[in-house]
Amino acid sequence: MKSPRPFRRLWLLPLLIYFLLTAWSARANALTIDEGLHIASGYTILRTGDYRLVEEHPPLVKFWIALPLLPLRSLPDPTTLPAWEAVASQADMTESLPLLQMAQQLLYPHTPTARWLLPARLMEALLGVLLLATLARWGRDLWGWRGGALAVALAAFDPNLIAHGAIAGTDLGATTFIVLSLFVAQRFLRRPTRTYTLLTGATLGLALATKLTALLLGPALGLAALWHLWRAPTRAARARLVRRGLLVLALTGATFWAVYGFQIGKVPGVPGVPFPVPAAAHAIPILRVLGHSSGGHQAYLLGENSIHGWWYYFPVAFLLKTPLPALILAFAA
To answer: Which phi and psi (to 5°) does residue 305 adopt?
Structure first.
């Protein structure tokens, strides 16, 4: 449903409000423990082309938040720092000390901290704006301009999205590209045109380069594709969807590989793979997460601490952190 003329640009208002809220919060909050590591990782890779400090998460969001730091002449060349020697001699890819030392030597001595922290946080806020714009358009597709306006208004004032948009992390970026790729993919499955084929492959590749959890898009979209194949009206339509789907897979791989600079090399930390492979450095986040998972992670919930967590942690966190009006509307829907 086409929105009335006075409301056609009204959806821009929640985006502006969201950006202002996150920018204000970004100026007010102190440095969090992970931000320096993410920024140092992205900046170091951009400056050197060396992916050994990619750590637990693929590099795309870290590249994005580190981009404004490239023109800062006060930041030194990472290869001139003592921490780079630890990076060069790093044998254990699951060891965080080299990146911690790099952040301490590259970023922390350069004060005021806001000179490099605030630009990185504002780049994160822009990813939140992209997420809200995607929700607005998807909501409009499904329920008209009123549905799109309601969706973007709820998202703009969500405390979780505001909080993550105000710090230079990886969670909001992963959420943004996962939602964006799902939005484009559902359009592709309904109308597998050339444009949607290109956009689906590109957005899926970018999503995979933000966080390892984006791998869940594979089985989810695979099931959706099977459903659409089963419901295809003709054999020609089914064949067309298969051809375009294979092209989507190729474009996804190419986009993902491009984020790693079309790297070809030996898989680090996996001696059983002696031959070079594309995007070999992606093994580092996988090894890091596997090592982290085996050792557990300190967690807190309802007055208790645990290394291994609780099966009900995320449902409880969702209920506690989501505003009551949003919960009521969600359950009512």
So the answer is: -110, 145
